[in-house]
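Severity: low
Component: inverse-folding endpoint
Summary: output formatting inconsistent between runs
Steps to reproduce: submit the following structure tokens with default settings.
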């Protein structure tokens, strides 16, 4: 054994593993090319034309798919781009309302980010732009500055024009987007693309479900046509509903009718008519390979705009409308640099959440469609999107599940889809925008509420998670309620902290159990899942399912000794009945086999305790054997 260890330690680090079937062990085999360190330095440290091309292709992924682009993909990308642009129009303006910025900013969010991401992103299908969660977080930042500026007016008697010049909504979101992008770019430079591994699916589920509740709450005033005070801070949601119920008598019935009608129309089409429509078009040979969704959101916007213009809903019935959209683009502007330090805390939260949502979406579709996305390059792409787009009036962007799924279902092949959608949105921004100014805000509220249905349904995940693991249930519940009660920033912190605590608890008090055999002679855990498992005479097989570290070493020692004491008593009668003979107490468990297959690592302190445990077992006349050593 010592000779084998010395032989294995003699191999250099730059080696590969080779399987030797005769001895059934893995041994390292030296890479012959790199026996000479000069070859390694030449291939890995000295710049070359190949290295430069590789770096350029990695930083500009569009160069790779452009080289292999098939002309036959154009119809798919064209159809997908046009369809996604239609969705962008309705969702862009709706999410702009959620972010408390002018509707035209929502159209900018649908135009600029897809263009930038097409150059730097590695995913072929994600649709980047405004999404509900990030729009809500942006709106909270805008509200906090609006309230702060109002209090400043009272305290310092500064004129309202001065405050608005300093803290204009668009100025705030531009600075926020720049700060978010800068944080993401710095993280990508230091190769922090792996941070999403610390955000479990349970955490993401609880966080998105809670933010969906907050988004729904934020739309209630416009749903009823009631004006209430903007609130921030702890228990914000409670105060909003209290004030909302107090003012229910002020409900604008026309606004309420538009909201309810829009929700019923969109939901009915999405849930009932569209599935029937998709089944029907499969019978039409011209459409049998694609499934074009019904643009019901755009239809609701058009109908609402026409009715509002014809019946003068704003002037006659006090229905809130968009009022001003304008056309054309804003000239690029420099940021109010003094705002950047004030936005760091919120920017960190938005940077992490937007990256986690976007990358998980990109990774899932990449796995389904059999290609690879680069975590660090994705982080860099999102950062560059936010930085560059911030100069044109955009707020932080992220990938949308709804738009991405449409892109995949329609057979989109590359990010040419984003470029095509931006071209069609250019027409809307330059020509069509002012025609939508009479549109009631209630139409956008209906679009937002229906778009939340899948996120709100994540509340059901708690029942599935609860049946699997109790600790993960704690993560979901703590994330969900802390986000609702404390707001999105603090909910993010609480959720991440609880997730880390759960990970520590898994290793601090891991499972330790006795193994037995079934009639198939396979070794199984003697638990409620294998109630028929039996121990071998005079043998105890123990498994500890965790690395042995300084913080759980004592638990390893205590749990092993406790199992030997308890199991010998509880299983004695069972052994007698199975083997139909008496097992003497002194002979029971004289051999202990420690299954080390789950012990992936032992640190210095853990090693000392491991040796101490073996010595204690020897003192109790146990013969200890180790198997499945890593």
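Observed output (run 2 of 3):
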């Amino acid at each position: 054994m010592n000779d084998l260890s010395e032989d294995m330690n003699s191999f250099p680090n730059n080696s590969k593993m080779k399987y030797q079937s005769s001895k059934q062990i893995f041994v390292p085999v030296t890479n012959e090319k790199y026996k000479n360190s000069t070859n390694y330095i030449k291939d890995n440290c000295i710049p070359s034309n190949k290295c430069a091309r590789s770096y350029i292709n990695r930083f500009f992924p569009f160069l790779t798919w452009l080289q292999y682009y098939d002309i036959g993909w154009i119809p798919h990308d064209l159809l997908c781009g046009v369809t996604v642009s239609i969705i962008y129009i309705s969702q862009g303006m709706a999410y702009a309302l959620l972010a408390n910025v002018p509707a035209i900013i929502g159209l900018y969010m649908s135009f600029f980010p897809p263009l930038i991401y097409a150059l730097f992103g590695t995913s072929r299908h994600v649709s980047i732009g405004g999404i509900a969660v990030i729009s809500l977080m942006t709106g909270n930042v805008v509200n906090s500055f609006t309230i702060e500026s109002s209090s400043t007016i009272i305290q310092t008697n500064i004129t309202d024009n001065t405050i608005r010049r300093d803290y204009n909504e668009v100025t705030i979101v531009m600075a926020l987007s720049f700060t978010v992008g800068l944080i993401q770019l710095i993280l990508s430079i230091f190769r922090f693309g792996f941070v999403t591994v610390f955000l479990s699916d349970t955490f993401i589920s609880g966080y998105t479900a809670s933010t969906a509740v907050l988004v729904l709450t934020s739309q209630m005033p416009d749903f009823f046509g009631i004006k209430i005070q903007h609130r921030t801070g702890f228990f914000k949601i409670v105060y909003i509903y209290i004030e909302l119920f107090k003012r229910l008598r002020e409900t604008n019935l026309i606004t309420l009718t538009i909201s309810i009608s829009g929700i019923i129309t969109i939901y009915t089409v999405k849930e009932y008519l569209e599935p029937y429509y998709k089944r029907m078009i499969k019978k039409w040979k011209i459409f049998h390979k694609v499934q074009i969704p019904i643009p019901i959101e755009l239809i609701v916007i058009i109908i609402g705009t026409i009715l509002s213009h014809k019946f003068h809903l704003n002037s006659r019935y006090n229905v809130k409308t968009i009022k001003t959209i304008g056309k054309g683009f804003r000239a690029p502007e420099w940021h109010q640099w003094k705002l950047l330090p004030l936005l760091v805390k919120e920017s960190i939260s938005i940077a992490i959440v937007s990256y986690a949502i976007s990358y998980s979406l990109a990774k899932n579709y990449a796995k389904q469609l059999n290609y690879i996305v680069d975590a660090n390059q994705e982080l860099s792409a999102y950062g560059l999107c936010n930085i560059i787009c911030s100069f044109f009036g955009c707020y932080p962007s992220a990938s949308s599940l709804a738009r991405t799924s449409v892109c995949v279902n329609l057979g989109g092949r590359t990010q040419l889809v984003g470029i095509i959608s931006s071209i069609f949105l250019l027409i809307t921004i330059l020509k069509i925008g002012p025609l939508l100014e009479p549109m009631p805000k209630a139409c956008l509220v209906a679009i937002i509420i229906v778009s939340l249905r899948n996120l709100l349904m994540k509340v059901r995940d708690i029942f599935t998670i609860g049946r699997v693991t109790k600790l993960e249930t704690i993560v979901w519940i703590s994330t969900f309620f802390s986000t609702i009660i404390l707001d999105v920033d603090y909910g993010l912190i609480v959720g991440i902290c609880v997730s880390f605590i759960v990970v520590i608890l898994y290793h601090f008090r891991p499972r330790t159990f006795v193994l037995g055999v079934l009639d198939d002679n396979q070794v199984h855990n003697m638990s409620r899942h294998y109630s028929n498992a039996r121990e071998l005479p005079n043998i105890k097989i123990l498994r500890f399912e965790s690395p042995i570290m300084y913080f759980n070493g004592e638990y390893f020692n205590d749990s092993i000794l406790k199992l030997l004491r308890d199991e010998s008593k509880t299983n004695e009668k069972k052994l007698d009945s199975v083997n139909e003979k008496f097992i003497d107490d002194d002979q029971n468990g004289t051999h202990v086999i420690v299954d080390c297959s789950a012990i992936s690592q032992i640190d210095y302190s853990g090693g000392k305790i491991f040796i101490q445990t073996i010595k204690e077992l020897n003192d109790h006349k146990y013969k200890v054997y180790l198997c499945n050593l890593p």
